[in-house]
Design brief:
88 residues, alpha+beta, three-stranded antiparallel beta sheet, 3 helices, globular
Length: 88
């Protein structure tokens, strides 16, 4: 990403950050999970205690925030009767 980056989520929940990154990328939005406060520590320490940010290019920020709002509202949740897509 050569464009200016924008933080769309800051969290200590690393799994949430990774899931959001995957959802953004599946929607065509390039995203990264970064940690600027503890980059000199080992990865295991960062994952155990550090805060991470999910960042996207400034031009994708509005679309990324809209997707995050959809996720937070529950609009993308499966209901009890839903079945996951079948792989071919």
């Amino acid at each position: 990403m050569s464009e200016e980056l924008v933080v769309i989520l800051s969290t200590t929940e690393h799994s949430k950050a990774q899931l959001l990154k995957a959802l953004l990328e599946s929607s065509g939005i390039v995203a990264e999970v970064v940690d600027s406060t503890a980059s000199h520590w080992g990865v295991d320490v960062i994952q155990a205690v550090g805060k991470v940010d999910v960042v996207v290019s400034k031009s994708d920020a509005d679309d990324a925030r809209a997707l995050l709002a959809e996720i937070d509202s529950g609009a993308l949740a499966l209901d009890e009767d839903s079945t996951p897509p079948q792989s071919r």
